Automatic annotation (TrEMBL):
InterPro entries for the chain: F-box-like_dom_sf, F-box_dom, FBX25/32
Protein name: F-box only protein 32-like
Lineage: Eukaryota, Metazoa, Spiralia, Lophotrochozoa, Mollusca
Keywords: Nucleus, Ubl conjugation pathway
Pathway connected to this protein: Protein modification; protein ubiquitination
Record GO cellular component, one term: SCF ubiquitin ligase complex
PANTHER family referenced in this protein's UniProt entry, alphabetically: LD30288P
Protein localization: Nucleus
GO terms under biological process: protein ubiquitination
Residue intervals of the F-box domain: 207-252
Organism this protein belongs to: Biomphalaria glabrata
UniProt keyword annotation of Nuclease present: no
Family annotation (Pfam families): F-box-like
Recorded name of the encoding gene: LOC106057977
Amino acid sequence: MPFIGRDWRSPGDQWVRTSEGWERMRLWRVKIFENLNQNAVARTTRLALEDLNPSREQTEYTGKRQPYIIFNSGSTKEKMELTSLSEALIRLDMSGATRDMSRANYVAKLMTLIMGKTFPVLSGTSQKHVINILDAMVSEAIKSELNIGIMKDLLDCAVDALNEGKHFHIGSQCLWSKHLETVNKLTNKLSEYQMKERNKDGRLMLHDLPTDCLRVIFAQISDHKDVMRAGQTSTTLNKVTEERSLWREMCLYHFNNRQILTFLPKQTDVDIDWKNIYRRCYKRFGRRETFADMLAICSHCCGIHWKSLGHPCISEKSFSIKELTPKDFLSLFKL
């Protein structure tokens, strides 16, 4: 009978019981790997390497399932340091959030606010984290072929911020030059990207759907730019995107009654051009910000977390949370 372990009779080995009998563990593993396909082997190897050699950010800062941070606005006897923006960006896993469709728009808006006003006054560490997040967002946009227009606008904003703040920024000139070089590389990388046209595989296309289905789909889109771009692709989609009822619903969603009445004609017997009203309201008031997932802060432990992921609160009773828009999140830190 085979033995398990080492003794004086033999160097020994580990054995495993299979349907065919007892086999050496080492040979049994080889057979298992031979039956797996190449993708499964690559994934298993990658996960094993991550477990053996975890990165410093993963081990110290980032939680894969529940990224959160306890916000401390003032120093106390228990904790003499304040919560920094760079620490929040790492522990809230902003780079990983770019790969989640429900959180990508929130991160994009946050990066736009940072690049528009506060980037030159950030510390060198925070600047590095922001640039790394931009790199992750561009890579994910090219990989998923989503939010290409948003990324182009964001990179243009980043270039303007780097050019305007090169004389009064915080940090060394060498670091600032590296930031500008990285953003220029990302801009060139995104400009070289060409969206692939879908092959004619005989399946239904968007313009092949019934008109009622198209109305329901476009009614769920909050950004008017996406609606207008879709209308430019075919005659069928153009007819749906130009309907007054669609622009009326968008006006009622993004603007309140007082804002709409500002541009609504006083005559009741005329046909209302809701698209024109939306355009004028958008220029004056701006559209309503909508996010599928947002950051929130706990009222009990002051833990900042993603609403969909939650956080391990120390309170045994029910607690309330306050949603944080990107502007509210930045206002928590002394920049």
